[in-house]
Amino acid sequence: MYDNLEHLGLDALDVVNLRVGGFDSPTPGSIAEPFTVLAQLQQEGLIKHLGISTVTAEQVAEAQSIAPIVCVQNFYNLAHRVDDDLIDSLAAQNIAYVPYFPLGGFSPLQSDKLEVVATRLGATPMAVALAWLLQRSPNILLIPGTSSVAHLRENIAGAALTLSEEDLSELNSIAA
Ligand SMILES: NC(=O)c1ccc[n+]([C@@H]2O[C@H](COP(=O)([O-])OP(=O)(O)OC[C@H]3O[C@@H](n4cnc5c(N)ncnc54)[C@H](OP(=O)(O)O)[C@@H]3O)[C@@H](O)[C@H]2O)c1
Predict the structure, then answer these.
(1) Is the pTM of this model over 0.85?
(2) Read out DSSP for 67-117?
(3) Contact between residue 98 and residue 71 where contact means Cβ atoms under 8 Å apart
(4) In ligand 1, which atom is closest to the CA atom of 100?
(5) Which residues, including other chains, have CB under 8 Å from residue 107's CB and lie 6 or more apart?
(6) Which of 31, 68, 78, 113 is the most exposed place for a label (fewest CB within 10 A)?
(7) Largest CA-CA distance found in the chain, in angstroms, rounded
């Protein structure tokens, strides 16, 4: 934390996430102790806003009983929808939901239905997958990863796509 501030030349970090669970799923249990430490650093003025990552809905509620949070970063994409209810609950509270592995991470999304919708829209499947996330809920903030400028351009194009009810219904059936 102090090293980060020094290396970045900042007096305070805008947002710090407490990363809680394993590689791709939460580990249930109390997060009070580590989250209280972050809340203290916020009170000292070193962190402006708090978030949490790879957490259950119960851990979100526990964090909120200690200090306000502005974002939750969990594993979610159109084929992996464990957090559907959590996303809706956070949206109602104006809290951002930041899906990691939005394109499937180490196992990139592959689906005939995604291909069909992408072909119909003249877009790439990944751009459609990102457009689906943006249309899923207004509190979703995207952080897709890529090492390729061409992929970056494709992914940014996803922000301009509008999915029809027919597109959404096909894409929603992927996880069903
Ligand atoms: N909080 C946590 O616990 C946690 C855990 C995991 C990840 N994250 C964060 O979440 C963010 C996203 O994660 P991620 O990058 O691992 O997963 P991701 O965004 O789902 O997928 C990235 C993969 O998709 C490929 N890709 C990207 N755009 C593509 C395109 N247009 N066409 C084809 N392939 C494409 C990338 O390959 P190319 O490089 O070839 O484009 C890369 O292999 C990162 O910032 C990461 O640090 C957080």
Answers:
(1) yes
(2) S---EEEEE-BTTB-TTHHHHHHHHHTT-EEEEESTT-TTS----HHHHHH
(3) yes
(4) 10
(5) none
(6) 68
(7) 53
CA distance 5 to 13: 7
CA of 9 to the centre of ligand 1 (A): 28
Measure the CA angle with vertex 48, ends 21 and 159; round to 5°.
70
- The alpha-carbon radius of gyration of the chain (Å, integer) is 18
Q: Which residues line ligand 1 (CB under 6 A)?
A: 19, 53-54, 73, 100-105, 108, 124, 126, 143-148, 151, 154-155
* Pair of tokens at residue 146: 């890529």
Residue-level pLDDT at 71: 98
Nearest atom (ligand 1) to Cα of 145: 15
